[in-house]
């Protein structure tokens, strides 16, 4: 990974305003645990190219890793603004909203995922988890059953819901 950082740094010497190179180096920093350097590169990348979806998405992941959940929601929102069907950004934003106790936005994000890909079982598990937190037993069961109807093992689905409830 140090070699990748070095290679991206060399390339940035030749093209210092390359948002893609900055975002790529940021991902390498992030993978190495150099979070503040990653954050600086993602931030510079998005200032050069405000529509660079991977930079916004990955900066959201970084903010989540730093425990800055509100900032993660904002960054995932930027990724979604430029790519409204970005399932990963929608799901991650829903998970962070759930961790923040913002259950209605979490459900809204999962509803958007269903509109993009109604066959994605994880969506229904996340919605089931949120409905469980809200004490909405009928909706919880409906979503759990739908995930099972899409081929998920019921025990695995229930275990997955438990893990969703504990981490964004």
Give the topology.
Blueprint: H1 2-14, H2 19-31, H3 35-48, H4 53-65, H5 69-82, H6 87-99, H7 103-116, H8 121-133, H9 137-149, H10 154-166
Helix pairs in contact: 1-2, 2-3, 2-4, 3-4, 4-5, 4-6, 5-6, 6-7, 7-8, 8-9, 8-10
Structure, described:
Helix 5 (69-82) packs antiparallel against helix 6 (87-99). The two termini are 26 Å apart. This protein has a domain at 103-168. With 168 residues, the chain is mostly helical. It has helices at 2-14, 19-31, 35-48, 53-65, 69-82, 87-99, 103-116, 121-133, 137-149, 154-166. Helices cover 79% and strands 0% of the residues. It is built from ten helices and no strands.
- The overall strand count is 0
Q: What's the mean pLDDT score?
A: 92
Count of helices? 10
User: Helix proportion of residues, in percent?
Assistant: over 70%
Strand content: under 5%
Index terms:
0% strand; mainly alpha; 168 residues
Compact description:
This protein is mostly helical. The protein has a domain at 103-168.
